[in-house]
Design the sequence.
């Protein structure tokens, strides 16, 4: 049996992992260049595949699309049976599930009814999002792209540009279907949320990084927001059901999924999230971040990165010597380069330098894939050898200055014992 994901660039993809979680060990990533995609699809040497950007519309030419796919204008799931290729759009089910998750935050599973929706991007996923929004009762959809598109076929759909934000800045729901903010460009954001006056929810179909800057900016403003990981899992789950020919599964986006389906999708999503999330250790110099980090990475069987060690390898000088020779400001600039690089990795344990989280740009980067653990050690017991800032500024002064940042940034705080085993056991109990 042959299954997989067809796309152009798949370095960011979690699909092989998620289908493995669903029991499909034959699933592979299938990167194909644009000049070869027609050849690949015409041969159809597969049993079933998912299709991602930029081939969702191209794939329509090589299959018998179902009614929903025909209406949307693109497919993301192909299934070969009796020599014929059948096409489906399980993205719409995944997207509907994503919106359900956002709606659950304020006890309204259908967030679309009578709402004005702005959708960034005009590709296949944009068409899918438009279909779901309208089927679930949106009053108006504005599709925003770099160039205006003339399309008068749908009275409840408007096409606009990023410059003409007066057309869409009053929307209640924002959907990002563009790749802006996707790994490795984690710092990018497709639109400034300050433009909006009535925003009630934000959906970002990007799932890598786990927390896009768009989602984080929305949450900072108190706006319910979610990224696309649960959409990815849900569409994958429905694809697997199609390949298994489970006729009892509804493909209608108006239907709410059964509770047992929700439990399966949520459970897989949670497992993948934990696999891909970084655990980031913060705290004062000498608080045991490297020691605990190495213990944690060994226990979890994942990679460990010490940003101070990465700094030394990258620049050929230790952080302490860099501060002494070049000053703290120059060191912090160089340190930020390292933090941004490390933060783009996933599923690792990171020990940060004591002052790394003082910069907003570093906090944003670390949060993109990270769960933040503050290791809080009694400042009276902190070592200062080879730590120029601790020696020159005084440990107590640094501790008092940094404590508000450590505490406001953390997801979890662990008191540090003199016995590393006790600290580690406490951390494991609270993490898992």
Sequence:
């Amino acid at each position: 049996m042959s299954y997989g994901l067809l796309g152009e660039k798949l370095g960011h993809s979690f699909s092989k992992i998620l289908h493995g979680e669903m029991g499909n060990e034959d699933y592979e990533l299938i990167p194909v260049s644009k000049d070869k995609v027609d050849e690949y699809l015409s041969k159809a040497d597969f049993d079933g595949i998912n299709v991602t950007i930029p081939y969702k519309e191209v794939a329509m030419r090589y299959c018998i699309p179902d009614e929903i796919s025909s209406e949307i204008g693109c497919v993301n799931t192909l299934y070969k049976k009796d020599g014929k290729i059948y096409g489906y759009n399980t993205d719409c089910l995944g997207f509907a599930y994503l919106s359900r998750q956002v709606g659950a935050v304020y006890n309204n599973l259908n967030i679309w009814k009578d709402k004005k929706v702005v959708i960034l991007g005009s590709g296949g996923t944009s068409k899918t999002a438009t279909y779901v929004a309208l089927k679930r009762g949106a009053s108006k959809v504005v599709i925003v792209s770099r160039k205006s598109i003339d399309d008068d076929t749908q009275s409840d759909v408007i096409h606009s540009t990023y410059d003409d934000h007066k057309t869409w800045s009053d929307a209640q729901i924002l959907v990002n279907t563009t790749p802006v903010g996707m790994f490795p460009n984690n710092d990018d954001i497709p639109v400034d949320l300050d433009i909006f006056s009535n925003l009630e929810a934000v959906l970002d179909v990007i799932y890598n990084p786990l927390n896009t800057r768009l989602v984080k900016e929305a949450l900072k403003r108190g706006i319910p927001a979610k990224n696309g990981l649960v959409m990815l899992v849900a569409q994958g789950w429905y694809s697997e059901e199609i390949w298994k020919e489970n006729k009892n599964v509804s493909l209608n986006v108006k239907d709410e999924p059964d509770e047992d389906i929700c439990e399966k999708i949520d459970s897989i999503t949670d497992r993948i999230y934990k696999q891909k999330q970084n655990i980031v250790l913060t705290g004062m110099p000498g608080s045991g971040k490297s020691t605990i980090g190495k213990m944690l990475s060994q226990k979890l069987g994942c990679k460990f990165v010490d940003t101070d060690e990465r700094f030394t390898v990258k620049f050929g000088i230790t952080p302490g010597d860099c501060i002494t020779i070049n000053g703290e400001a120059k060191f912090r600039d160089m340190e930020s380069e390292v933090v941004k690089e490390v933060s783009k990795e996933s599923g690792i344990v990171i020990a940060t330098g004591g002052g790394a989280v003082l910069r907003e740009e570093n906090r944003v980067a670390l949060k993109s894939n990270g769960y933040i653990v503050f290791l809080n050690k009694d400042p009276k017991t902190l070592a200062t050898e080879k730590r120029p800032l601790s020696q020159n500024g005084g440990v107590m002064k640094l501790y008092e200055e940094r404590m508000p940042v450590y505490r406001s940034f953390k997801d979890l705080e662990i008191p540090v014992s003199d016995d590393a085993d006790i600290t580690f056991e406490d951390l494991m109990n609270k993490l898992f």
About this structure: The domain at 277-431 is CATH 3.40.50.300 (Rossmann fold).
